[in-house]
Every structure is written in structure tokens, then in C-alpha cells.
């Protein structure tokens, strides 16, 4: 590690790193970055209550308690099981509260999408400055030194080594007995919750209709015969879509570099 220190200090004191540090300070003043911060404050306000910088205030996500029990007269000829089924305890969350939070999340993701656009001026400058640091002589010298120390002679060797590390970590996690027990315990908790939670009122209305569709799909999964497997598939499909978008974004960044 001591062999790397002189190069690391040279990199720290380089013009490329100084330029990137100035860029980071400039990013804090960017209008879109500040709007995302306000979006996050709005989300915090609508979930936990309080006021945000745009002047809006909210009591937060408050549900109304629902409790229904059969009358003593009705329970006279009921079994314990029948009585338990008739006893209902739950929460009703107003439709607008759910839609407010969804709208806050949508605002954040839309603004993040604009910020991550490689053609957005701040992002375009950041990509170029990041490339300037990575391809600077000292950083390249450090990279070659590390690759030599690990016996890596080409980009293909590097990709192979990274794949081996990733596969090894994945295998360690999947075969670890503690992870297996934790996963099974988590699945049991989820299965119990999905079997015993009854959803009787879904979001409705034309506003933020994707919330209605998402809630409906999650309830369908909860009520399915193989809810855990369907939940896994739902999450995997969403992760695959995100991965594809990240790959496309990476290709666009490479084009600009």
C-alpha cells in the first residue's frame, strides 16, 4: 500500500481533481439539484408531517382506525372461528394522502431523470471532468501499477477477474447458512402478512393512475396461491428493466467521454 501513497498524493493535488472539486461546489448551486432537494423535503413532509420550503404543510400520512366487532347478541350462536373472522381491525389511509406521496416520488424521479441526462449542462460537464480525472497520467499510472500487482495484463483479464469476484461473492452469499436462514425467516414473515392482511379499499381516481395499477398488482400477488414466488418475479422483472436502462445510460456516457 505504501507504494501507492506518492501517486495517490499526486492525484489528490492534481489540477484534474481540483477542477472536479470546484465542479462539485458548483453543482450545489444548480437549480435542478435544488429542486430535487425541495422534492425530497415535500416527500418527507407528506410522510412524516411538517412544512417544506415551498410553503406547503401537511399532517403526514395519517390513517383512520377501523374497528368492527359483532354485537353480543350476534355472537351467541357463533363459534370462536366465526367470531374472529367478524372482528376487523385495520387502518384506512385517505386516497389523496397516498397520491400525494406518489406525486412526490414521481417529481423526484422525473427531476433525477432530467439531471442524469448526459446532455444536461451540469451532467455533461461532470462526465467530462470525471473522464479527465480517470484518464489523467497519474491515475493511469496507478491503474497500471495495480493491474500489474494483480497479474492483470489486459481489459479482458480485468473483466474476467471482476466476473470471478462477483460470482464468488454471489456464491458465498447464496450458500451462507445465516443468509439462508434469514431469507427463509423473511419469507415466512412476508407469507404470514400476505395471508392475514385483507385489503378492502384500493386507490382510485384519474389522478396518478399508475398508483391504482401498482396497488392492484400487489394485492393480486398477495392473494395468489404462490405469493412469495410471484413477488420474487415482480421484483426481478423491475430490476431487469432498471439494469437495461443503466446499461443504455452507460453507453451514452461512454459516447460523450
Question: Any overview of this molecule?
Answer:
The protein folds into 2 domains: 1-135, no CATH class; 176-257, no CATH class. The protein is 72% helix and 5% strand. The chain contains 12 helices and 4 strands, in the order H-H-H-E-E-E-H-H-E-H-H-H-H-H-H-H. The chain has helices spanning 5-12, 15-27, 31-48, 72-75, 80-86, 95-116, 121-134, 137-149, 155-175, 177-196, 209-222, 227-256, and strands at residues 50-51, 57-58, 64-68, 88-92. Strands 1-2 form a two-stranded antiparallel sheet. The chain has a two-stranded antiparallel ribbon with strand order 3-4. Strand 1 and strand 2 (57-58) form a beta hairpin. Helix 2 (15-27) packs antiparallel against helix 7. The chain is extended, with a radius of gyration of 27 Å. The two termini are 30 Å apart. The relative contact order is 0.09. The model has no long low-confidence stretch (mean pLDDT 83).
Please describe the structure with a list of short key phrases separated by commas or semicolons:
two-stranded antiparallel sheet; 257 residues
Précis, in short:
The chain has 257 residues and is mostly helical. The chain is 72% helix and 5% strand. It is built from twelve helices and four strands, in the order αααβββααβααααααα.
The SS-based structural class is mainly alpha
Largest sheet properties: 2 strands, antiparallel
Helix content: over 70%
- The percent range for strand residues is 5-15%
Strand order of the largest sheet: 1-2
Q: Number of folding domains? A: 2
Number of helices: 12
For the termini, the CA-CA separation is 30 Å
Q: How confident is the prediction overall: mean pLDDT?
A: 83
How would you spell out the order of helices and strands? HHHEEEHHEHHHHHHH
Number of strand elements:
4
The outline comes out as extended
Radius of gyration: 27 Å
Low-confidence stretches: none
Amino acid at each position: 500500500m505504501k507504494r501507492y501513497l506518492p501517486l495517490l498524493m499526486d492525484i489528490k493535488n492534481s489540477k484534474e481533481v481540483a477542477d472536479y472539486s470546484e465542479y462539485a461546489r458548483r453543482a450545489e448551486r444548480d437549480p435542478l439539484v435544488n429542486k430535487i432537494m425541495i422534492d425530497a423535503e415535500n416527500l418527507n413532509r407528506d410522510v412524516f408531517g411538517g412544512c417544506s420550503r415551498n410553503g406547503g404543510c401537511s399532517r403526514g400520512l395519517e390513517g383512520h382506525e377501523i374497528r368492527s366487532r359483532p354485537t353480543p347478541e350476534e355472537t351467541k350462536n357463533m363459534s370462536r372461528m366465526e367470531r374472529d373472522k367478524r372482528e376487523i381491525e385495520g387502518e384506512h389511509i385517505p386516497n389523496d394522502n397516498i397520491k400525494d406521496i406518489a406525486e412526490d416520488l414521481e417529481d423526484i424521479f422525473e427531476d433525477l431523470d432530467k439531471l442524469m441526462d448526459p446532455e444536461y449542462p451540469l451532467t455533461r460537464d461532470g462526465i467530462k471532468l470525471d473522464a479527465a480525472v480517470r484518464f489523467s497520467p497519474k491515475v493511469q499510472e496507478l491503474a497500471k501499477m495495480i493491474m500489474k500487482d494483480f497479474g492483470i495484463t489486459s481489459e479482458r483479464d480485468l473483466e474476467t477477474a471482476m466476473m470471478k469476484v462477483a460470482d464468488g461473492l454471489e456464491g458465498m452469499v447464496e450458500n451462507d447458512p445465516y443468509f439462508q436462514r434469514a431469507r427463509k425467516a423473511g419469507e415466512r414473515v412476508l407469507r404470514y402478512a400476505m395471508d392475514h392482511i385483507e385489503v378492502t379499499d384500493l386507490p382510485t381516481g384519474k389522478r396518478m393512475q399508475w398508483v391504482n395499477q401498482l396497488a392492484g398488482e400487489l394485492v393480486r400477488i398477495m392473494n395468489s396461491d404462490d405469493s412469495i414466488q410471484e413477488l420474487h418475479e415482480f421484483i426481478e422483472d423491475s430490476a431487469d428493466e432498471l439494469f437495461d436502462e443503466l446499461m443504455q445510460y452507460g453507453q451514452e456516457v461512454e459516447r460523450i467521454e
